[in-house]
TrEMBL record:
PROSITE patterns: NLPC_P60, PROKAR_LIPOPROTEIN. Belongs to the peptidase C40 family. Residues 73-195 form the NlpC/P60 domain. GO terms for molecular function: cysteine-type peptidase activity. It comes from the Bacteria. The lineage of its organism: Bacteria, Pseudomonadati, Bacteroidota, Sphingobacteriia, Sphingobacteriales. GO terms for biological process: proteolysis. Keywords: Hydrolase, Lipoprotein, Protease, Signal, Thiol protease. InterPro entries: Murein_DD/LD_carboxypeptidase, NLP_P60_dom, Papain-like_cys_pep_sf. This is Lipoprotein Spr.
Length: 195
């Protein structure tokens, strides 16, 4: 089969058009992710872009579990993937594996995997690097502390949305709880942002 000169020219035009389009798209200005215009808690959502259908279902599932609107859950898929992967893992003092994990170990692993930040290992060390804020100002990714067994700030978790937080509880392992529930409300100490 012989190619006609008109077809070659058209083919070259398409290739040239495609190349120029690709170049222009790749040269588009990118947002500087190192700026202070957003908090560490918002960072993963800004880095991951479009959501897959599986991610959308995961976020919808957790929105329903937390009794919040799907639009309110945000797009921090990495956070909810991590929670989903660890959900139900039993509590074990000093544990850092799927066979058992304690509350401060869970917050440490979550921060390392989701926010790429190295938190100290224990609750007492973690509370030293948290800037306290009002309960009503808490945002996703903030750390919350509870007084447990008569000890100040002896339990820790990660704030999610609308009073919900994820933690490794001694009774049920890794779970999501509501800070507005009577027990948590009476044992809540403080919450805040990692400095």
């Amino acid at each position: 089969m012989r190619l006609m000169p008109e077809k070659i020219k058209t083919g070259h035009k398409l290739i040239l058009l495609f190349t120029i389009s690709s170049f222009l798209i790749s040269c588009k200005a990118k947002k500087n992710l190192s700026s202070d215009s957003f908090s560490r808690a918002e960072m993963p959502a800004k880095m991951y872009g479009k959501l897959t259908l599986k991610d959308k279902y995961l976020l919808a599932y957790y929105a329903q579990e937390m009794s919040i609107d799907e639009q309110e859950i945000g797009t921090n898929v990495q956070l909810y993937r991590f929670i989903d992967d660890w959900f139900g893992v039993p509590y074990r003092i000093g544990g850092l594996t799927k066979q058992g994990i304690d509350c401060s170990g869970f917050t440490q692993l979550l921060y390392k995997n989701v926010y790429d930040f190295a938190l100290p290992r224990t609750t007492s060390e973690q509370k030293k690097i948290v800037s306290q804020k009002a309960f009503t100002d808490l945002k996703e990714g903030d750390i919350v502390f509870m007084n447990y067994d008569g000890k100040l700030n002896s339990h820790v978790g990660i704030y999610l949305k609308k009073g919900r937080f994820v933690h490794a509880a001694s009774s049920k392992g890794v779970m999501i709880s509501n800070l507005y529930d009577a027990w948590y409300k009476s044992h809540y100490s403080f919450g805040g942002e990692v400095r």
